Each structure stands twice: as C-alpha cells, then as structure tokens.
Amino acid sequence: MKDIYEPGSLTQAIDFHLAHSVGKTPDTASTTDWRLALSRAVRDKLIAPWFEATNRTYAKDRKRVYYLSMEFLLGRILEDAVNNLELEDDAREALAKHGVSFADVVNDEPDAALGNGGLGRLAACFLDSMSCLGIPAYGYGIRYAHGLFRQSFDQGKQVEMAEDWLRHQHNWEFERSECLYDIGFGGEVIETGAQAKWSPSDIVMAQAYDTPVAGWQARWTNTLRLWSAKPKKIFDLDPFNRGEYMQAAAPAVLAETISRVLYPDDSTETGKALRLKQEFFFTSASLQDLLRRFLTHNGDLRALPTKVAIQMNDTHPAIAGPELIRLLSDVHGLSFDDAFDTAQNTLHYTNHTLLPEALEAWDVGLMRSILPRHMQLIERIDDRLGRDVAMSKTGVTPRIVENNVVNMGTLAFTCSRRVNGVSALHTDLMKQTVFSDLHKVYPERILNQTNGVTPRRWLHGCNPGLRDLLNETIGTEWVSDLEQLENIAPLADDPAFRKRFMAIKQDNKRRLADWVAENMNLQISPDAMFDIQIKRIHEYKRQLMNAFETAALANAIRREPDADWTPRVKFFGGKAAPAYVDAKNIIRLINDIAQSINTDPVIGDRLKVVYPPNYNVSLAEMLIPAADLSEQISTAGKEASGTGNMKFALNGAVTIGTLDGANVEICDHVGATNIYIFGMTAAEVQAAREGYVTQDYIDRSPILNEVIEQVRTGFYSPGDPTRHWPVLEKLLRDDYFMVAADFDAYWDAQRRVDGGFANKDAWARMAVLNTALSGWFSSDRTIQGYAKDIWGIDSLAGETE
Ligand code: 26Y
C-alpha cells in the first residue's frame, strides 16, 4: 500500500494512462481524456488494498455484510477517491504540468445517479463508512443504464430528460463477464411429493460489474457489485435471416429493459410489473452470488447467519425472504423450517418511510404470475406468522397477504431478525403505527439506528476551507472520528476563530454566487443570508410553505422597502417524480414567484430566489458549504429522518425546522439555542387532523391570506391568472400536510432568524457550534451501531496488519 503515498508516481501514471488506456497525446487530449487518464491512475491505487481486503476476509473467515439496495446515489467517484487517498495535491500538480485544471477535470465527471434521494444517498454513505471501518461488505444493486432523469425548466415547468451516465467510458468498474446468474420469471411450479421445483417460462441473465469502494486512506476497500440484465440468448438468427430484424432483436431488448432505467419515483406508484421484476432480478442474483461465496468455504448452509448478514434497504429487496428460503430449500435441500430459520437469522430490514403510498404492496395475481413459487412460499411464511401471532396471545391479527395484496413491509418484518427505523422519532412511530401489531408479537425485533452522513464527502471533500481550518486547529483525526469536532466547541467564544470560520463560509458563498451569475444569469450578494431548501419535491416536505413565506416576505418588503431588512437569498433545489402532478405544480409556482421577486426593483437585493435546475449530489456539494440557513420544515411525523439536515449542520448552517425525524436529535446535540424549532409536534399534528379546515387557518392569518389571494388572482402568473389554481384547489380541499396550520409559526420563526442573522457574532457562534456538535451524525457511528446491534460483526479495530 506504500506506493499510494509516493509523490510523483501519479504524474507518470496519468501520462501512462493517457497514452495506453485513452490513446491520446497531451496536445490532443480533451478534459474528458484527462479525466479518464486520472481515473485510471487513481483506480490503480485501489487495487492492492482491494485484493488485500478480500484476502484478509477469507484468511480470517470473517463475517460479511451484504447491503441490498435498489438505489446507490454515489455522485461523482473520481474526486471522492482522490480525497480518500489524499492525492489531491499530487493530482492537481500532475495536471497543472500540462496546463490542465484539476477542478475542470473532476467536474467533467457525470454523477452516478443510481438513486432518487435520501435512501439511495444513505446507501452510498454506508458503503463509504463500511470501508472506512474495515467491515467486509458488498453493496448489491442494479447497474441502471439510465440513472435519475435530468431536470430542466421550460417557463418554470419541470421537463425530464433521460440521463446517460455511461455515454462516455465509465472506468471505475470491472465487468465480470464470467459472473452470471439465471433469473427466472413466470412459468409453473412442479410438485413431486414434498419437493417443489420452479420451472420459469422466461430467463434473463444477471451479469456483475464491480466497483471498488475505498475507505479513508484506503485502509480497507469493499466492492459495490451492480447487476446488469443480459439476454439468455444473444440473438435469434432465423428471424434475422428472414429479414425480420426487429423481431430478431426483440428478446434481447426486452431482457435488457430490466436494468435500463431507475424508477424516477420517490414514493408514488408506477409501472408495477417491471419494478417487481427489477426487485427480484437484483435480489435473486445477489443471493445466488453470496450463497456461492459462502459455499466455497463452508458446507452447512444452516451456519449462514454466522458468516453472512444481509441488510434490506427498505422493502425493495424484501423478496429476499422467500427467495432465500427457496434457494435453501428447493435448490439446496433444507427443510422449509430450517430454510426459514436460516433466512430469518440472516436477514434484516430497514424501514425508511411511514407514508402509506410508499409502502409496497403487490397484487397477489401479479406476484403469482411473475413469481409463482414465491407466492406459494409467501403463503407458508404467512402461516408461520399466523402461528406466532396465535402463540403471542396479543389479540392482534397482522397478515402478510390481505385483501388480495402482499404487504411487503409485513413480509420483510416477518423474514427478518432485526428491523430498524432511521431516527428515534421514526422508530417510535413505527412501533405505534405501521408495525404496531407486529411489534406486539415480536417486541424485541424493532430497534433504532439514527442515520448519518460520511464526513469524507460531506465535509472533508466538499468544504476544503473548513477542512483545512479543522486540521490546523484539532489535527486530522476527526475525518474518521467525527465526534472530535467537539474540540472546537470552546472556540465558538473565540472572536478570532469565529472570524476565520465565517470567512470560509463567505468564500463558499462567493463561489456559489459566481456559479449562479454564470449559470443562471442572476446577481446575488454573498453578504445576504443564504437560505437553502434542497431535497425531493414532495408535499410533506412543504416547499410550498417556504414558497408562501418567500412571497409574504416580498410583500412585506414592498410595503416598507426602507425598513431594516436582513437581505436573503432563498435557494430551492429538487426534482419531482414525473407522475407527481401536485409536486410539479409547486415547482412551477416557485419558479413564477422567483421570477416576480427577482425582477422587482423595489425589492432589489433584499430578497432573491434561486432555483437551479437538476439538483443532484454534485450541486449539493456546492450548496451545502455555502448555506447559512438549512430548511428542514416537513410536517412532524412525516420525514423519517432526513440526512441533508445533518450535512448542513456539519458545515455550519443553522437549521430552521420542525420536530421531525432526525431534527429532534440534531436539536438535542447542537442545543435548543442553536437551532430554530417551530410548528406542531407529531402528536399535535395528529390532534389537529380532527375537523381540520384549511380555510379557517387562512382566515386567521392575514399574511398567508394575502399570498393566497395573490396566487388566486394571478399576481405571479400575469397573463395566465388561473395557472396556479390547482395548487390552491388542492390546498383548500386537502391540506393533509398542514401548510396552513403551521404557516404563522414558520413566519414567526423566520423573523427570529432575521434578527439572529443580523447579530453577526451571535450567528457565527451558532454556526461554529453546529459544526462542533454534529459529529455524532457521522455514518461511521451509524454503521458501528448496525455492526454491533444488528450484524454481530467486528470492525477493523484490533485486526490491523
Ligand atoms: C417503492 C417506491 C414507491 C419507493 C421508492 C423509493 C418508495 C420509497 C423510496 C425512497 C424513500 C426514501 O428515500 N426515504 C428517505 O430515506 C432517507 C434515508 O433513511 C430518510 O432520511 C428520509 O427521511 C426518507 O424520506
């Protein structure tokens, strides 16, 4: 591993790869060519630690973690690898010799956007942490040809375009053409005595592509194994020879459809059969693969739980329960009961949402037609659940199959040894709501693991200014032991330190302002407060409440332009699921409000609204370090955890938020005086549902009422006055997420924020304390919790060299 740190070697490696891997000379190389050459050079340095990690895992026969996830929202890989290997200075220097900018090269890389939002990004942070901690692990997912759609705005309306991250050579992965598994669909079950055999009518092949995931300083390197769908039969020559070219190509096209696109869907329902096929496709391939690996060193499959822990990232891989039971019993000959016990002791399930529309449920008919054997096994699992329920004498009646649908949450729960929520509040609500019956039957099963974020990408990588200040002040250990940030807490009272801390914030803001000027043709002042809400657009996240507050603030400024305003720039960023009409209407309204405010000379620099299109991981890396205020304003009880909230706090932004998800724990850690909490609690939200009338709340709030009237009369859509009526219609008919009820509390909290920001010293103190006291939100801490409480696994500690 020594070679990694040898200065100078990178220069030669880049030059070598530019010639030998890319086939270019320095004078003809484009930015992309340089990126490919640098990527190869950096990738080479991961290989030795990667092999070594594998060898050590085999040598010690260590237990492995398999993280099954439909989504891995990695973002850019090159810069992250450079950071983890601490090669930035070398890379910068090596490229500079050719007059090439390191920033241009890393920014040339398209994001690997194999995910929609929080759940997918969490999976990526977990991979990073498992490598950092030396936990032997595989991430298993789908190698989508097209990741999350690209978003643009046409007159304020969201337009979606196919994303194409693999168009240029993607040289982080290794294609494993020999690592192939058959994945069946449809057909019938042939039963002979007690033996059942599934005979599928269609077979698609899953082929592996491996990406090494290097941990901090390449102490350990794991693998992300993504499956790509390939046809069983490459090509049908007969129809081709008859000139029926389309027909000849059709079977291959159909097979490849399975890994073609990521469902651009955060919580609504879509093209059912294909999604179910995707879920089974990657789950089955992953299970076949891990069983093969287990069997190379072990004989008795009943010992599987001692060497393997499988984590199901939400219910998307929940078919793992019946599929593992099928493989263990139908294929490897265990009895059903042994297979069930083995599977259950191996599998664990994380729940990420309580929203009913995001809880997966498949029609029994659909399940039976695509996975007939699994449907039979699901019924047997349901019988076992029924027996446990009866034994428990709890009087509850949870079932997996109910009203002709398979409830995947109940299936996942029943097949798992441990089930976890993603924040303390969310876990409590799981026990009280969706899983209350199952919790009574299995009171030991649910536990909490509050989410976290990787400090490598979300501080060390994205905020070099702050990184350097921290290194200088408290040393470098914080990168892999984030709670050491507490050591800067006393410096919140040191004016010189505060000054440096805020100068870094100011630099980050200036960089963002330059980007906005260049890319959005809008001038914003870095002296204004940067107030940022970035996340998927969803009614429960209440971007609408923020938009209304923005409009109300503009009204107040117009009325009294010479009052003492705290200048603000409000940033919005996020995509709406293409089929989620109400969310898309909100995007258009925000863009119209932005247009109206940004062109109003009376408002000027007191308020600006910026909504950059195509929010993604890379944009987040620029926005978060530049934030003064972090908007975390979901209806209490609806945001399972949030992880953006943690990234902001870590980078010294102050939160305005409800007592929802992990905000509750952020408040506990940073202290109630360093956060702006407002609005109803989860319990109050429940209580307010009874007899809720939106209009009553609007009538009581002159500020909100004025904005609603403006929207209604076309103030933000002159020439098309009814344009935003659907937003109002929905709000008045069904304000399920209680925008109206929380509006005044939000407005008041924002005015407190104005006052807070005006006091520069007090604000800087809060900002420093947010960074100092957010160390607990490292995904390293989260993963240590999973390792100890769920997987029963040791980290690298005590095992080095
Ligand atoms: C099945 C389909 C409809 C579906 C697809 C994706 C359902 C849900 C999802 C994604 C959910 C998700 O991203 N949930 C988020 O997970 C984060 C990580 O735990 C949380 O921080 C966040 O609060 C939660 O909304």
Overall description:
This protein has 32 helices and 24 strands. The chain is of the alpha/beta class and 801 residues long. It has two domains: 365 residues, Glycogen Phosphorylase B (Rossmann fold, 3-Layer(aba) Sandwich); 272 residues, 3-Layer(aba) Sandwich (Rossmann fold). Strands 7-10-11-4-1-12-13-17-18 form a nine-stranded mixed beta sheet, sandwiched between helices. It has a six-stranded parallel beta sheet with strand order 21-20-19-22-23-24, with helices on both faces. Helix 1 packs across helix 4, helix 9 crosses helix 11 and helix 20 packs across helix 31. It starts with 8 loop residues before the first helix and ends in a 10-residue tail after the last helix. Bound molecules: ligand 26Y. Ligand 26Y binds next to helix 6. Its EC number is 2.4.1.1. Pfam families: Phosphorylase. This is Alpha-1,4 glucan phosphorylase. It catalyses: [(1->4)-alpha-D-glucosyl](n) + phosphate = [(1->4)-alpha-D-glucosyl](n-1) + alpha-D-glucose 1-phosphate. Its cofactor is pyridoxal 5'-phosphate.
Structural topology:
Layout: H1 9-20, H2 31-59, E1 64-68, E2 72-75, H3 78-84, H4 88-96, H5 102-107, E3 112-114, H6 118-132, E4 137-142, E5 150-154, E6 157-161, E7 174-185, E8 188-192, E9 195-199, E10 202-214, E11 221-231, H7 237-241, H8 245-257, H9 272-297, H10 304-307, E12 308-313, H11 320-331, H12 336-346, E13 347-350, E14 361-363, H13 364-370, H14 372-392, E15 401-402, E16 405-407, H15 408-414, E17 418-421, H16 424-432, H17 436-441, E18 446-448, H18 455-461, H19 464-474, H20 495-520, E19 529-534, H21 543-559, E20 568-573, H22 581-598, E21 607-610, H23 617-623, E22 629-632, H24 644-650, E23 654-657, H25 663-670, E24 676-677, H26 682-689, H27 694-700, H28 702-712, H29 725-733, H30 739-758, H31 760-772, H32 779-791
Helix pairs in contact: 1-2, 1-4, 3-18, 6-32, 9-11, 11-12, 11-14, 13-14, 20-31, 21-22, 21-28, 21-30
This protein binds ligand 26Y.
Ligand 26Y binds at residues 116-119, 122, 265-267, 352-353, 358, 360, 422, 451, 639-643, 661.
